[in-house]
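In this supplementary section we document a worked example of the pipeline. Step one takes a protein sequence of length 274 as its only input; no multiple sequence alignment statistics are reported here. Step two produces a three-dimensional model, which step three serialises into structure tokens for compact storage. The input and output of this example are shown verbatim.
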Amino acid sequence: MRKKTMSAAFTALCFTAFGLVLLSLSIGILGIGGTDIISDGRISAAVKLESESLSPEEEPQTGGENGTVSPSPPVILIDAGHGGEDGGAFSADGVLEKDLNLAMSRDVAALCLIFGIPYEMTRDEDVLLYDRYGELESYEGRKKSLDLKNRLRMAEELDTVLFLSIHMNKFPSEGVKGFQVYYSDNAADSRPLAESVQSFVKSHVQPYNERLPKSADSSIYLLKNINTTAILAECGFLSNVGEAAELNTPSYRMKLAASLFVPSAEYYVRCAAS
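The serialised model returned by step three reads:
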């Protein structure tokens, strides 16, 4: 398990992640416009920034005394919305929300790996999670509700510091666009984190975006029922032709992923150091 007190240098490294990501985009080390080294939500051995950024005493411990395994570290749980039979929203040209959610979740996971932030993903493939635990003989008519309950169960069973759910939006009016964050009222840190993410997007990606974070209502099951710090990002409107095209562009998605990652990493480091 990582030591709770992380070095100031490592903390600063997390805080400057966005600048590194923009640099990475220009030279292709994250596989955008160059050789693809992101596969199944993980970075290949070609990128070893995590091991280079941690001093030896800060590296993860693989075992305890007498050969016992150390407890797993607290994690950011990255939740790619929808999946499998549930495609979610879709664009005019047929791009499915579930696929964009997973692509952006993998981008966030890649950044976590690079900067040494422990994480888990609710899904890393095109599936719903109704049968994740294999405890029921029939799922007929309950797949969506069981999917949501199992995502919540994962958050409860892991030592989840932050639950980060990634979605895309849709609206009848094609002119509506822009990134929007929702937060859970069940943990005090959710709102300020949501404000930080929304502000980051406005400052670095969408200067026109005047949206403010919103408290989740009962229609957002996960945020209403989870007890840890939790936010849900609606990353854009697939009903807006221009924004849908941007969301289907890897470089644009990475900018949004960085905007989600940087405040989340800062929050994780503060929690780990406390």
